[in-house]
Amino acid sequence: MATIIGSLEVMTMLYDKLSEEKRKSLISSALTEAFRLDHFITNILDMAKFEADAVKPRFETARLSQMINDSLARLGPLKTRGEIKIAPSVTNDDLVTDPMLGARAIGLVLHNAFKFGGRKAAVPVIEVEYGIVGSEGFVRIRDHGDGIPPAKQAAVFDKYTRLQKSDQQNASTGLGLTICQYIMRLLDGRIELSNHPEGGAIFTLWYANKKAT
Protein backbone atom coordinates (compact mmCIF):
# COMPACT_ATOMS: atom_id res chain seq x y z
CA MET A 1 0.00 0.00 0.00
CA ALA A 2 2.88 2.37 0.80
CA THR A 3 4.20 1.89 -2.74
CA ILE A 4 0.84 2.84 -4.26
CA ILE A 5 0.43 5.91 -2.05
CA GLY A 6 4.02 7.03 -2.55
CA SER A 7 3.90 6.66 -6.34
CA LEU A 8 0.63 8.56 -6.64
CA GLU A 9 1.78 11.32 -4.28
CA VAL A 10 4.93 11.89 -6.34
CA MET A 11 2.87 11.91 -9.54
CA THR A 12 0.45 14.44 -8.04
CA MET A 13 3.05 16.83 -6.65
CA LEU A 14 5.72 16.63 -9.34
CA TYR A 15 3.85 15.59 -12.48
CA ASP A 16 5.06 18.47 -14.68
CA LYS A 17 8.67 17.99 -13.57
CA LEU A 18 8.79 14.25 -14.20
CA SER A 19 10.05 12.72 -17.41
CA GLU A 20 7.73 10.46 -19.38
CA GLU A 21 9.90 7.50 -18.43
CA LYS A 22 9.65 8.33 -14.73
CA ARG A 23 5.87 8.73 -14.95
CA LYS A 24 5.54 5.32 -16.57
CA SER A 25 7.79 3.81 -13.90
CA LEU A 26 5.69 5.25 -11.07
CA ILE A 27 2.44 4.10 -12.69
CA SER A 28 3.90 0.63 -13.22
CA SER A 29 5.01 0.42 -9.58
CA ALA A 30 1.57 1.44 -8.32
CA LEU A 31 -0.21 -0.96 -10.68
CA THR A 32 2.03 -3.89 -9.75
CA GLU A 33 1.44 -3.29 -6.06
CA ALA A 34 -2.32 -2.92 -6.60
CA PHE A 35 -2.49 -6.29 -8.36
CA ARG A 36 -0.38 -7.87 -5.60
CA LEU A 37 -2.71 -6.56 -2.90
CA ASP A 38 -5.77 -7.66 -4.86
CA HIS A 39 -4.34 -11.18 -5.18
CA PHE A 40 -3.44 -11.22 -1.49
CA ILE A 41 -6.90 -10.14 -0.29
CA THR A 42 -8.78 -12.30 -2.81
CA ASN A 43 -6.92 -15.41 -1.66
CA ILE A 44 -7.75 -14.76 1.99
CA LEU A 45 -11.44 -14.18 1.23
CA ASP A 46 -11.64 -17.19 -1.09
CA MET A 47 -10.03 -19.45 1.50
CA ALA A 48 -12.71 -18.45 4.01
CA LYS A 49 -15.45 -19.21 1.46
CA PHE A 50 -14.06 -22.63 0.59
CA GLU A 51 -13.63 -23.60 4.23
CA ALA A 52 -17.22 -22.54 4.90
CA ASP A 53 -18.43 -24.65 1.95
CA ALA A 54 -19.92 -21.49 0.46
CA VAL A 55 -18.71 -22.02 -3.13
CA LYS A 56 -20.88 -24.04 -5.51
CA PRO A 57 -19.77 -24.77 -9.08
CA ARG A 58 -21.93 -23.83 -12.06
CA PHE A 59 -21.28 -26.26 -14.88
CA GLU A 60 -21.58 -25.10 -18.47
CA THR A 61 -19.84 -25.55 -21.80
CA ALA A 62 -16.38 -24.02 -21.71
CA ARG A 63 -13.10 -24.05 -23.62
CA LEU A 64 -9.75 -24.74 -22.04
CA SER A 65 -8.07 -22.16 -24.29
CA GLN A 66 -10.47 -19.44 -23.15
CA MET A 67 -9.96 -20.39 -19.50
CA ILE A 68 -6.20 -20.03 -19.98
CA ASN A 69 -6.61 -16.63 -21.66
CA ASP A 70 -8.92 -15.44 -18.88
CA SER A 71 -6.43 -16.52 -16.22
CA LEU A 72 -3.59 -14.70 -17.97
CA ALA A 73 -5.63 -11.50 -18.19
CA ARG A 74 -6.06 -11.53 -14.42
CA LEU A 75 -2.34 -11.83 -13.72
CA GLY A 76 -1.75 -8.19 -14.58
CA PRO A 77 1.88 -6.97 -14.60
CA LEU A 78 3.14 -10.26 -13.12
CA LYS A 79 2.99 -11.96 -16.53
CA THR A 80 5.45 -9.43 -17.95
CA ARG A 81 8.16 -10.94 -15.73
CA GLY A 82 8.60 -13.85 -18.10
CA GLU A 83 7.69 -15.56 -21.33
CA ILE A 84 4.73 -17.89 -21.66
CA LYS A 85 4.52 -20.57 -24.34
CA ILE A 86 1.11 -22.15 -24.99
CA ALA A 87 0.86 -25.41 -26.93
CA PRO A 88 -2.58 -26.95 -27.56
CA SER A 89 -2.64 -30.69 -28.16
CA VAL A 90 -6.12 -30.73 -29.73
CA THR A 91 -8.21 -28.52 -32.00
CA ASN A 92 -11.43 -29.09 -30.04
CA ASP A 93 -10.97 -28.20 -26.39
CA ASP A 94 -14.64 -27.93 -25.40
CA LEU A 95 -15.76 -29.48 -22.14
CA VAL A 96 -18.42 -28.96 -19.49
CA THR A 97 -17.07 -27.48 -16.28
CA ASP A 98 -17.27 -24.25 -14.29
CA PRO A 99 -15.22 -21.85 -16.46
CA MET A 100 -14.77 -19.20 -13.77
CA LEU A 101 -13.50 -21.64 -11.16
CA GLY A 102 -11.50 -23.48 -13.80
CA ALA A 103 -9.76 -20.29 -14.89
CA ARG A 104 -9.16 -19.33 -11.27
CA ALA A 105 -7.32 -22.60 -10.66
CA ILE A 106 -5.14 -22.08 -13.74
CA GLY A 107 -4.39 -18.52 -12.67
CA LEU A 108 -3.26 -19.63 -9.22
CA VAL A 109 -0.77 -22.11 -10.68
CA LEU A 110 0.47 -19.57 -13.23
CA HIS A 111 0.88 -16.98 -10.48
CA ASN A 112 2.94 -19.45 -8.50
CA ALA A 113 5.05 -20.32 -11.57
CA PHE A 114 5.80 -16.70 -12.47
CA LYS A 115 6.58 -15.74 -8.89
CA PHE A 116 8.62 -18.72 -7.71
CA GLY A 117 9.48 -20.83 -10.76
CA GLY A 118 11.99 -18.65 -12.52
CA ARG A 119 14.88 -18.27 -10.13
CA LYS A 120 17.35 -19.82 -12.57
CA ALA A 121 16.71 -17.43 -15.45
CA ALA A 122 16.65 -13.67 -15.92
CA VAL A 123 13.49 -14.13 -18.02
CA PRO A 124 11.45 -17.08 -16.72
CA VAL A 125 9.78 -19.32 -19.29
CA ILE A 126 6.43 -20.87 -18.44
CA GLU A 127 5.14 -23.63 -20.72
CA VAL A 128 1.41 -24.39 -20.92
CA GLU A 129 -0.06 -27.41 -22.68
CA TYR A 130 -3.74 -28.31 -22.77
CA GLY A 131 -6.06 -30.84 -24.33
CA ILE A 132 -8.66 -33.57 -23.87
CA VAL A 133 -7.77 -37.12 -22.85
CA GLY A 134 -10.67 -39.55 -22.70
CA SER A 135 -13.31 -38.09 -20.40
CA GLU A 136 -11.03 -35.42 -18.93
CA GLY A 137 -9.57 -32.11 -19.96
CA PHE A 138 -6.13 -31.11 -18.76
CA VAL A 139 -3.95 -28.02 -18.43
CA ARG A 140 -0.27 -28.72 -17.79
CA ILE A 141 1.96 -25.89 -16.56
CA ARG A 142 5.72 -26.23 -16.38
CA ASP A 143 8.18 -23.70 -15.00
CA HIS A 144 11.97 -23.75 -15.30
CA GLY A 145 12.83 -23.22 -11.66
CA ASP A 146 14.41 -25.52 -9.11
CA GLY A 147 11.54 -27.99 -8.99
CA ILE A 148 10.04 -29.26 -5.74
CA PRO A 149 11.69 -32.08 -3.75
CA PRO A 150 9.46 -35.20 -3.80
CA ALA A 151 9.38 -35.30 -0.01
CA LYS A 152 7.88 -31.80 0.07
CA GLN A 153 5.43 -32.03 -2.81
CA ALA A 154 2.40 -32.95 -0.70
CA ALA A 155 3.12 -30.05 1.66
CA VAL A 156 2.81 -27.36 -1.03
CA PHE A 157 -0.97 -27.85 -0.96
CA ASP A 158 -1.13 -27.15 2.79
CA LYS A 159 -2.14 -23.70 3.97
CA TYR A 160 0.62 -21.12 4.49
CA THR A 161 3.34 -23.42 3.12
CA ARG A 162 6.49 -21.82 1.70
CA LEU A 163 9.39 -24.09 0.91
CA GLN A 164 12.38 -21.76 0.87
CA LYS A 165 13.61 -18.86 2.96
CA SER A 166 13.30 -16.55 -0.04
CA ASP A 167 9.62 -17.50 -0.23
CA GLN A 168 9.16 -16.13 3.27
CA GLN A 169 10.57 -12.80 2.13
CA ASN A 170 8.44 -12.73 -1.04
CA ALA A 171 5.08 -11.39 0.16
CA SER A 172 2.44 -14.07 -0.24
CA THR A 173 -0.42 -15.66 1.66
CA GLY A 174 0.80 -19.21 1.04
CA LEU A 175 -2.79 -20.10 0.10
CA GLY A 176 -2.74 -20.24 -3.70
CA LEU A 177 -2.15 -23.95 -4.22
CA THR A 178 -4.44 -24.83 -1.32
CA ILE A 179 -7.26 -22.92 -2.99
CA CYS A 180 -6.41 -24.53 -6.32
CA GLN A 181 -6.80 -27.98 -4.79
CA TYR A 182 -10.16 -26.98 -3.27
CA ILE A 183 -11.35 -25.83 -6.70
CA MET A 184 -10.27 -28.97 -8.52
CA ARG A 185 -12.05 -31.16 -5.98
CA LEU A 186 -15.21 -29.07 -6.37
CA LEU A 187 -15.02 -29.66 -10.11
CA ASP A 188 -14.58 -33.42 -9.59
CA GLY A 189 -11.05 -33.05 -10.90
CA ARG A 190 -7.59 -33.15 -9.41
CA ILE A 191 -4.18 -31.48 -9.46
CA GLU A 192 -0.96 -33.43 -9.90
CA LEU A 193 2.60 -32.31 -9.24
CA SER A 194 5.86 -33.69 -10.61
CA ASN A 195 9.32 -32.49 -11.62
CA HIS A 196 10.57 -32.31 -15.18
CA PRO A 197 13.71 -34.41 -15.87
CA GLU A 198 15.45 -31.28 -17.17
CA GLY A 199 14.39 -29.13 -14.23
CA GLY A 200 11.33 -27.25 -13.10
CA ALA A 201 8.00 -28.18 -11.57
CA ILE A 202 5.01 -29.46 -13.55
CA PHE A 203 1.47 -28.91 -12.31
CA THR A 204 -1.29 -30.72 -14.20
CA LEU A 205 -4.92 -29.75 -13.66
CA TRP A 206 -7.36 -32.50 -14.63
CA TYR A 207 -10.95 -31.40 -15.29
CA ALA A 208 -13.81 -33.89 -15.29
CA ASN A 209 -15.70 -33.37 -18.55
CA LYS A 210 -19.34 -33.45 -17.45
CA LYS A 211 -20.37 -33.74 -21.10
CA ALA A 212 -18.63 -37.09 -21.33
CA THR A 213 -20.19 -38.66 -18.21
Offer a concise description of the structure.
With 213 residues, the protein is of the alpha+beta class. Helices cover 42% and strands 21% of the residues.
Layout of helices and strands, plus pairs?
Layout: H1 2-14, H2 20-51, E1 60-63, H3 64-73, E2 83-88, E3 94-97, H4 99-116, E4 125-133, E5 136-142, H5 165-169, H6 176-186, E6 190-195, E7 201-208
Parallel strand pairs: 2-4
Antiparallel strand pairs: 1-3, 4-5, 5-7, 6-7
Helix pairs in contact: 1-2, 2-6, 3-4, 4-6
What report would you give on this structure?
By secondary structure, the chain is an alpha+beta fold. It has two domains: 52 residues; 149 residues, 2-Layer Sandwich (Heat Shock Protein 90), CATH 3.30.565.10. Helix content is 42%, strand content 21%. The chain contains six helices and seven strands. The strands form two sheets. The chain has a five-stranded mixed beta sheet with strand order 2-4-5-7-6, covered by helices on one side. The protein has a two-stranded antiparallel sheet with strand order 1-3. Helix 1 runs antiparallel to helix 2, helix 2 crosses helix 6 and helix 3 crosses helix 4. The radius of gyration is 18 Å and the shape is globular. It starts with a helix and ends in a 5-residue tail after the last strand.
